[in-house]
Amino acid sequence: MLAIDWGTSSFRAYRLDADARVLEKRSAPLGILNVQQGKFADALESQISDWLNADAGPVVMSGMIGSRQGWVEVPYASCPAGAKEIATGMREVSWGQRSAWIAPGLSTRDPSGTPDVMRGEETQIIGALDRLPTGSSWVCLPGTHSKWAEVRDAKILSFATHMTGEVFALMKAHSILGRMMSDGPTDPTWFEAGVRRAQDAGGLLHHLFGVRARGLFSELPNERAASYLSGILIGDELASIGNTQGPVHLLGDPSLVALYRRALESLARVAVVLDSDAAVRGLFTLAQHLPRS
Amino acid sequence: MLAIDWGTSSFRAYRLDADARVLEKRSAPLGILNVQQGKFADALESQISDWLNADAGPVVMSGMIGSRQGWVEVPYASCPAGAKEIATGMREVSWGQRSAWIAPGLSTRDPSGTPDVMRGEETQIIGALDRLPTGSSWVCLPGTHSKWAEVRDAKILSFATHMTGEVFALMKAHSILGRMMSDGPTDPTWFEAGVRRAQDAGGLLHHLFGVRARGLFSELPNERAASYLSGILIGDELASIGNTQGPVHLLGDPSLVALYRRALESLARVAVVLDSDAAVRGLFTLAQHLPRS
């Protein structure tokens, strides 16, 4: 089969054998926002027409390719959902003599009725199911929009999104805090100080101003301010999740996962890092549920 | 006397008689960031040289004019502080045969040792002291950086800053939420829905994403999204303040004060709106404590 992880800014394709082994992989900065005039079939052919010509098996895609800005808008599946429920929501697209399947995103509602959504992360979670313990567990996928999902009996029960990464980028680029920041690698000591600060009373909007106030008093070096800010934001996310039982399973970009692991451990929480190739395995699992043609 | 409220973006001057009555006032978009090459004396003369020539009494200024980017950096006075303590921290600047006094800002530290600062708001609070009840009371000055001060026995005991207004502007201008927002007046129903939403568990970073998710499900009209976002941010600020006893005294820009009053009342809190001319009266009070020459 051919597994395609097609997001906003990047395109990743994998050719798999019948045992889910990756035979070949390709990637390009050809996210859906970089595809001209909605010519997704042309874009796909430009990357893997040789695989398609060789009839390498069914094509299954997930990510923002199934959004309103993508190839076709595939309606969200609803929580609770496992591989079967998500696969049932897949939509087929075709061009010439060829066709491909696009996975739906997933939606949930919290007790207040407020909706939440993901697109792509559900496939990663499906791909990581066999690494999770039986019973209930928490999976966190850090990112621009971090996702926290509660999984039980191979189903995603519910989840919540936090705009942590986007707010960090905005504050750094456009706020009064950004003006005092110089670039540099994340400083672990200041990052952890931010994580701890976020556990204090006062609220995020107050703790953010503390970055500036500490700078004014020369109690926070400019080259550490971004690390402290990052700690405050990730620490606030962890405080908001509350007292989730058991370890937090981290999934996704290795550098972000390392940062979240550090934050969790500094709060005496247990972090378990899952492999970062879950998207491919999730797409393989979804392909097992395709209607037999 | 001449009272000057000189901030980042605006300049306001008042000529007062000995009973604190305003005889004349002038304002200009001549904030400290608009004064070329630090020529503050020239800027002041350009606005009120006739008053200065008429020897209209001592000149007392407050606001960002006393910051590192202003005329001279006046070190922060420390909490707890009343009019006398703040006046003691004033610094004199002179040019030609003339001189003026610049009030210090105010600093505090919370139990964790994290500092906080204000510059200008302390003078507004001093000017509002005679409108506050005896005993302990809370004063809120909404704004780009909202200030919450605890006042007792005519002294500012402590305060906390929230970056509410700045984060609202950033999210509207630069975030994924801003893309779904069209302009319009604040909608009271959606504003209050945001205030209530912010009282739910989940945290601010999660509630922010809810603005997008509700939009995706067509459960939040684009022209109401900014009102809902504003409610979430102000509601989060109110949730973070916690259970302050008694009424909240609101001081500052009338349209923002009206919004905060609405938010407080929707949470069954009592709001008392103070007059918005407190800065002038605060400068008059500080002038009473000038060293006699």
Condensed summary:
In chain A, helix 6 (204-216) packs antiparallel against helix 7 (225-241).
Can you tell me about this structure?
The structure is a homodimer of 293-residue chains. Chain A has 293 residues and is of the alpha/beta class. Chain A has helices at 40-53, 83-88, 121-128, 164-174, 188-197, 204-216, 225-241, 254-266, 278-288; strands at 2-6, 11-16, 22-28, 59-62, 77-78, 91-95, 98-102, 106-109, 115-118, 136-141, 146-152, 155-162, 248-250, 271-273. In chain A, the strands form three sheets. Chain A has a six-stranded mixed beta sheet, sandwiched between helices. A five-stranded mixed beta sheet of chain A has the order 12-11-10-13-14, with helices on both faces. Chain A is globular, with a radius of gyration of 21 Å. Chains A and B meet through β9, β12, α4, α6 and α7 of A and β9, β12, α4, α6 and α7 of B.
